[in-house]
TrEMBL record:
Annotated RNA polymerase sigma-70 region domain residues: 20-88
Sections of the chain in a coiled coil: none
Protein name: Sigma-70 family RNA polymerase sigma factor
Regions of compositional bias (Basic and acidic residues) in chain numbering: 174-201
Keyword Transcription regulation recorded: yes
PANTHER family registered for this protein in UniProt: RNA POLYMERASE ECF-TYPE SIGMA FACTO, RNA POLYMERASE SIGMA FACTOR RFAY-RELATED
Organism of this sequence: Streptomyces glaucus
Gene3D superfamilies recorded: 1.10.1740.10, Winged helix-like DNA-binding domain superfamily/Winged helix DNA-binding domain
RNA polymerase sigma factor 70 region 4 type domain residues: 121-172
Pfam families (UniProt xref): Sigma70_r2, Sigma70_r4_2
Length: 201
């Protein structure tokens, strides 16, 4: 299916792009949310990812398997750009006069999560990872790509993926304990960062 879809996408077939979106939009959205931690930003990443996919369709290799790694690689780059824009926006807001208030959406977002405390713990642990480590973790652990597919998506050697993932797992294991329980023996500390993998399509 993907070989035929790949050929049609490269040829600029609009119906093929509809099929591409139907097949992989959910996977791209999940990956984007794991990178951004924000529902609205994840939706923006999905839209921009498929726009970029259309723009970059002629660069798609003629031969290959699933188109999912290609799309997740594009989504990773889009998420980087959105983070840069958000940092610039935050810097601009910080320069506003002090009497102007800016709405804080943090509580609204947290309210949509059943276990806000656990989410905070996971996000705090993820924040301690380098960007490259978070990206590899999202691709290999949560999106279920193998090392080769993740390396292809990120444009780095397989060995780099392996080493980044190893460092990310060690750091998460260290930081996933709540501060008040560090030093005590606990169960599996990394359960919270191992949701069900999405199937490889």
């Amino acid at each position: 299916m993907d070989t035929t879809l790949r050929t049609r996408v490269r040829a600029g077939d609009h119906e093929a792009f509809g099929d591409l979106f139907d097949a992989y939009a959910r996977s791209v959205y999940n990956h984007a949310f794991r990178l951004t931690g924000d529902w609205a930003s994840a939706e923006d990443v999905v839209s921009l990812t498929f726009l970029d996919a259309w723009r970059l369709r002629d660069r798609l290799d003629e031969e290959g398997g699933s188109l999912r790694p290609w799309l997740l690689g594009i989504a990773t780059n889009v998420a980087r750009n959105i983070r840069r824009a958000a940092r610039r926006h935050s810097a601009a807001v910080a320069r506003l006069p002090r009497d102007e208030t800016v709405r804080d959406f943090a509580e609204e977002v947290a309210g949509r999560v059943d276990d806000a405390a656990q989410l905070a713990l996971v996000r705090a642990a993820l924040a301690k990872l380098r960007r490259a480590e978070r990206e590899v973790l999202a691709l290999c652990v949560w999106s279920g790509l193998d090392y080769a597919a993740a390396a292809d998506a990120l444009g780095v050697p397989v060995g780099t993926v392996r080493s980044r993932l190893s460092r990310a797992r060690k750091k998460l294991a260290k930081h996933m304990e709540p501060p008040e329980t560090r030093g005590q023996i606990r169960g599996d500390r990394t359960t919270a960062v191992r949701p069900l993998r999405e199937g490889n399509r």
